Queue: 2 jobs
Job 1
Amino acid sequence: MTALSTPVTAPPAGGPLQRLSNLLYRKPNLYLAMLLVPPLLWFGVIYFAPLLTFLWQGVYTYDEMAMAATPDLTWANLLALFEPANYDIILRTLGMAIVVSLASAALAFPIAYYMARYTSGKTKAFFYIAVMMPMWASYIVKAYAWTLLLAKGGVVQWFVEQLQLTPVLQFILGIPGVGGSTLSTSQLGRFFVFVYIWLPFMILPIQASLERLPPSLLQASADLGAKPAQTFMQVILPLSVPGIAAGSIFTFSLTLGDFIVPQLVGPPGLFIGNMVYTQQGSIGNMPMAAAFTLVPIVLIAIYLSIVKRLGAFDAL
Amino acid sequence: MTLAVQFTDVSRVFGDVKAVDRVSIDIQDGEFFSMLGPSGSGKTTCLRLIAGFEQPSAGSIRIHGAEAVGLAPYQRDVNTVFQDYALFPHMNVRDNVAYGLKVKGVGKSERLTRAEEALGMVALAGYGDRKPVQLSGGQRQRVALARALVNRPRVLLLDEPLGALDLKLREQMQSELKKLQRQLGITFIFVTHDQTEALSMSDRVAVFNKGRIEQVDTPRNLYMKPATPFVAEFVGTSNVLRGELAQLLTGSAAPFSIRPEHIRLQEAAGSDANATDVLVTGLLHDVQYQGAATRFEVRLENGQNLSVSQANNQWQQTAPAFQAGQQVSVRWAREAMVALTDVEGR
């Protein structure tokens, strides 16, 4: 009669670990919760809540006499963003972010294409390391190194002289908005450094998207009569758009938020990042810093919605 | 009669592997031609050579009389249905089907009409707006077929297109493909490792083994008169007997094939054989009931194994229920033996 007295659910055998394991097996949601609660807590408490608190200060009032913020709600800070001096900073940063993203995509695509389609084994490993190695070095060291490379009498200028191209360089440096007295104090030099620093963030996502492209799709395209250029425009490019979009989200947002490169390379003139740093660190105007912090967030949100509307994620 | 595709001494070498080794084939215009063989036998490479995805290391390939070696895939009047269908995931079904017309510069209204027509041909009219991911495997396969046919190729290449479908769907697609080929009258070159598929659909079949063709023949001849031991064993099931036993039974040491269903099993004592029949005794060591037939494995005195298959129908006298472990006689007509040519080690 032991069979009848045995409960339907067999008692868990073994020690407490075994019982816990059985419990989690029976209750998958509990398992999921145990997995997710720590990172969500971290994300919420350490990251998200402070960010929101900080952004909320964007509508606080800053008392210049007392050098302190009071929780009297006002639109003044946000409206101040549209004052010419501030608006200039936003446009300068946004323009640079767009140009850097476009140039990175154009430079990264051939490299990513070569990596994905023509390399395997050791050659591929070599390319991965070559692309990522610059990221192992400190970012500030790299930015400083570039100031030296681009400076008057620096390596770049020496090369240009050897190639007898000094007049060309002088001409480029003479273009308003692009040039400056030397490369290292020009908008162009700043652009070079940004592209150099963020390029790996563009190469890797594009490479991943091209890697996922089955070779049979390219063969099918050729088989149906498409010339290589048509296959590129109709099949390869559309299917790598998610990768380009992912990469450009990196380059775009990283440029928007950067405050070190604009400080070290290029002409005077603040970027959004410098402005946040100055408002918060030097002046102590937390509300204005918060207002400026909101700008990249809004810009990226706008950027993402445009990218999505263009159908960049349809092929995902 | 013009030849749709002609291979003359074509080889394709990858490193030191001869994927295709001195192959010559003549494929007639309007023929349903299958390339059959195990994986790695060179059949798919041959198809890719016709499509232009591979270039031969040696030899000549003519498509409708014109030398094709050196031509890129987009310069050839052939279209391929891929094993994985290779549908463009970012285009809907209509754009997938119209793709070939679009890249050739056919006007929008004409290409949409023709795409719709091609979709109708594969019973997918009205599916134009769907994306490939929204279709089942069988439907994707049809889209791939429509995408190739819309270009009105003179030769259609099919690379194991039914491999991913389940049995019922596969059988249905087999008969539809055959019907479509008759209707359109274009040459189909069909690559498969499934001998039943090749036999049931094709006008002629080329059997590939290790980069070479062992036999090109009609399905019936392939089954009834296999030329080599490989063909005998790959197409259907066969007993290939060689050496001393062959010498004893046929008077020649050349191997021969005898199909399991051509052998009769009987009690060891029975001796009502015709004088012309071959009669040998052995040990029945395995009996497998397979539904339509029963398979018996008999070990002859010299150790040779012989498969015997007997249909389980009401006409068949199944009277003595044979048990594994008993001594039996096997008997077959001399005409059922097919002499084979050993080609291994050429």
Job 2
Amino acid sequence: MIQSIDYVAIGAPLALASAAGLVLLLDVFLPRRTPGALGLVALAGVLVAGGLVAAQAAGGGERRTFCVPASGAGPGDGCSFVVDGFTLVLSGLVLGAGVVVVLLSMTELAERRIPPGEWYFLLLCALTGAVLLPAARDLATLVVALELVSLPVFALTALKRYDGRASEAALKLFLVSVVSTAVMLFGVSLLYGLTGTLHLDRLSAALSAVPGASGVVAVAVVLVLAGFAFKVAAVPFHFWAGDVYQGAPVPVAALLSVVSKAAGFAGLILILTTGLREQAALWGPVIAVVSALTMTAGNVLALRQRAALRLLAWSSVAQSGYILAPLAVVGGNAFAASVAYLVIYAAMNLGAFAVVMPVSRTAARNELDDYRGLASRRPVAAVALAFFLVCLAGLPPGLAGLFAKVVVFRQIVEGGLGWLAVVMAVNTVIGLYYYISWTARLFAPAPSGPGRVPAAPMPVSASVAVGLAVLVTLAFSVAPQLVLSASG
Amino acid sequence: MSWIPIAMLAVPLLGAAALLLPRFAGGPSHRYGLAVSGVTLALAVVLVAAFDYGDAARTQFATDLPWIPGLALRFHLGVDGVSLPLVVLTALLTFLCFVHLAGRPPHRPRALVFTLLVLETGIIGTFLALDLLLFFVFFEVVLVPMYFVIAIWGGPGRRAAAVKFILYTLLGSAVLLLGLLVVWAQAGTLDMVALARGGGAGIARSAQIAAFLAIGVGLAVKAPMWPLHTWLPDAHTEAPTVGSVLLAGVLLKMGTYGFARIAIPILPEGAAAVAPWLGALAVVGIVYGSLACLAQRDLKRMIAYSSVGHMGFVLLGFATLTPVGVNAALFGNVAHGLITGLLFFLAGAVKDRYGTADMERLGGGMLRRLPYIGSLLTFACVASLGLPGLAGFWGEMLALFGAFRPAAALSRPLFLVFMAIGGLGTVLTAAYFLRMLSRVTHGSPAVPEGPPVTSAEEIREILGDEGPVEPVAAGTAVTAAVAEESAAVLAPPAEPVGGRAALRDVTAYELAAWVPLVVLTLLFGLWPKSLLAITTPAVQAILSGVGS
């Protein structure tokens, strides 16, 4: 049987994959290895993919391809690749984040200690996987896309070969990720064995038709959840975050905290709300407990951190907990709140990374105390970072973060999970402590003494990245409806 | 759509935003702040002039625009008899703070002006908002600026005090948000006007109680109500003068205003169920605040604790659920804002001159050394302890009167006990203020040579922010700075007794900042109807759901 392929639907991942190949070729054939040129090619690839996604969004409607027509296998049209509103929002998020990560990479690679061709190739591969994933509608595509996001990231982390911490981080990430993939594949194989279908839309009905296998279903569900819990750094699979964020190059940490996390959540939302819809009574309470534990563990661990990147690592674990919370509300459109939070979180978290990036180049250890007096050295960067941190804390003037939290709170309260709302309220307060103490450092008087070099000018690419993140976060603050209507 | 409320928010906000422009770097920011807050005050005066007093219960100058349809959040502003006095009070106190700053330019003036203007936007917005979530957003706006006011311009223990303030109040507002969301989930709208008109219709009694508890706890942290007040003494003591004035003068009112605007009218059944507890905690707060005041050595800390007691009277007024009681609460709100604002200004002035606010070290005889400041301090204390004829009296008296005859749904004997304890509280309030006056203003001055300066922060406050301060030379430097500026003294300094160093008495700027508060305290004290006439119709509307 010959399948017809809708090339418009798969345009964005195709563009990214082509750009990845092109970068690799150019790296070989360009006479001088100019990291800037390759960066621009990668940037162009991401922008083209973004343009395609935007065009699809403007065109409206839903596109499906790679379909296996129904042959008595159950309801649903059995398409493996679907471009709908959910796909477009998450692809847009990934590509937007991709632009910022590429810009940060330009700053990172300007030192010329990391091979640019390999770097951009791997980066674009990871982005391809992340764009593919929200469109995936069968378990095999989902797993393959998720691995396409994960595998290049190990290599990216390890590319900082001259740094022992990077190798350690890469190994840690590799082991954790491989184990999680194995666990998830086991769960997926159980699901497939029980139902005989991989398509998410057929899975749900098929699972409820399986008689007397609730024990196996429960095991399968828990294993799949555990696999995703690794990807989004949820408790009890969160411990890798601190070391990996600290050891990896800053752009990779940004990639991990936003792109990789968005991919993980996209897969989780797809499996839970489509494939395992009927089993909600099973996974709902599990997600609620995991969410509460994740936000608490992340916030408590972040309290004691002195290094900026470790703090961001644990804070992003805590934020994962907030994103998980609405998923625990069974039924309705609760996952829209998660998507909205994810989009806003991506903007503000990337912004924080974009400011941390140039500071990490002047202060090797990148500790919180290195930010003391940043307001007098680099007022614009300091105000931007303060804005992002206050956003992450969820307080005005960071209205984007505030509204994101309100959306999540509303979903939990309406869903009747009062205890989770209270846990999250307490966590918001814990989180504020470390965000505000970092913000206060920015405006504290600079420490005097020898060894204080005047600030080097901000690299252009990093400035553009910061500016972009500020603009997007400001837009989300003034008009959060942009996100809410897209994700709803 | 009416332009005045929008302009009252836009002027300070845009004024703050303009300060970010590079051309303001190092400019005379305090004069700029004076101008911006002056315009805001002028708008408030226009509001007062254009307000229709015949229909004070109705929402006037309403603006209702959609903002975030996905959250059903509307940009809904308006003024009625409950919010008008507080809006004007906020504009006035902020303006007076800038007058005060014009006389004593702080270090990092641009940043301070910026923060104060954002703070003003948040407070005015809270009083104007008529949408539950919009109210919450403005409620939160004040947190970060106030944190920085305390953390950057505060006293020696500022960092801990600022962190305590923001964490405590954020915990309160997170709980408040949950309560608001319960209301929303039950009633299906965020429109405060519609919700208040409905009077709790469509919200089950159990949900009303849960929501009232959550909202009440959130507001009680801000108000503050005993035992949730522990952030307040530290924050008030460590904050700079303008911070203390705004904290005590208007920030606390956001909590009590929430009771009048949200908790009681929207959740009447919840209010009726929780009111005895609210009343009990309020009277405990009154007595506890007074006793704590008796134990204080620090002038600012004593005034801070006196706020706990005064806000106890306000909360007791709300707890009675009667028109008299709620009127008392709203009156007490404004009176406390005026009087405590004045007290903190004076405490700041005393601290500037003596270099300490410790009552032991102030010695006595302020009326001889600084006759103007001493007599103003006496006036403010007497007003605060509730002398008939001054503004402080009516709030307390009416609150006790309301407790004498509480709403029908409440137990009268219980509230009679509250009244008796509250009455005891007024006596204790008088006791600590009079004790303080006798120790500080009366007697003969017994102050060591030169202002005893205790810390580098205090010296910096006097000398400005130039270079490191050496503790050894500090005393002389401060004396020199004080002597240098004595040309600007309005009134002749008190005759130095026994060759002691002369301190300058009140300056023109200080007088300009304080006189309006004195005048209004007298006005509302002698003619309480001027304020009660505005609030009474609105109060009847608030209580329409309680069925008293």
